[in-house]
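Data deposition worksheet. Section B asks for the primary sequence of the deposited chain exactly as it was used as input, without tags or linkers unless they were present during the calculation. Section C holds the resulting structure in token form. Section D is free text for depositor observations; keep each observation to a single sentence. Incomplete worksheets are returned to the depositor.
Section A, Depositor: J.P.
Section B:
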Amino acid sequence: MRVRILALLAAVCASLLLFAPRGFTAEKDDPGFVETTEASTAAVDRGLAFLARRQNPITGAFGDDYEVAITSLAGLAFLAQGNVPGRGRYGENVRRALQYILRQCDEDKAGFIQEPKKHSRMHGHGYATLFLAEVYGMSESIPGQDLKFLREKLHKAIRVIMRAQTEEGGWGYTTEREYDEASVTVCEVQALRAARNAGLQVPKDVIDHAVQYVQRCANKDESGSFVYSLRGHANRSSFALTAAAISTLVYTGQYDAPEIQPGLQYLIKNRPGATRNDSSHYFYENYYAALAMYYAGGDYWRNWFPSIRDELVQRQNRSKTAADGCWPGEYCEEYCTAFALLILQIPYRYLPIFQK
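Section C:
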């Protein structure tokens, strides 16, 4: 109920939104910790304007490859400022992104959200389901919004995820239940949890089984890291996988799970830019690491966020295309910019997944 109330407040604020919120504090008992700065707010403004310019004027999509995944991430970035379909500074961009995702729902595959150009993977379907769930959660109580069609598509997308869950409790690249790995699993379980928070029916045992899968991916070497898969990849662990796993466990309420504290310490010791070379998954892993620290709260968030906030501002400013407002990097500029914007907008707390 609290999530729905907060989502309603976010949607109402979106209709009046002219500028992103400034000067949010992280904890009520720590008024001295200011999460946003003038520089970070300006970076968000430039980044959102960049994404708006890069949206396909005909289809509403973002990116040249993996449009479903990247359009969903870009849509989430707009939602994170409080925009909803048709309302807010970028409400039209959200609406067009939503319409694009809804058009990709393949009825022949019972609701699988299909990439138009490439062989689709469950990553894209998971991000698209998350986007649909967040739109639904933020728009459900807005007068005049007819969300029946969106709810039907979201319901089908959820069922695709549930049917694709393997016996181990995870998910793989396709809807076939033959293989599972952690990066896809965290994507699907966060989408399911978001849908459930938005009021759709998601059996608790499905999420519980997935949480158990993630927990079993914890490395047995006591490093606090997580492995790629339970099937033959015992030594393949990384900062990215650990960040995604810890954020998922805390997001699903596993605050006291034995994997949490070692995992958080692993992230602190292996932070990109702190103790190791820059990663090829910089934006992906920093997004999930920021979520992990945010959900953990307290000193974890207080000590972590200012560093990544200022680092992202500096990366945007020193980019050759800084005037455009993008963050270049892996895959494409829209992908990197969307993840960077999501990180910087966690303090705004408009997205239901950013509400605790």
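Section D:
The chain is about 55% helix and 5% strand.
The first helix runs from residue 2 to 16.
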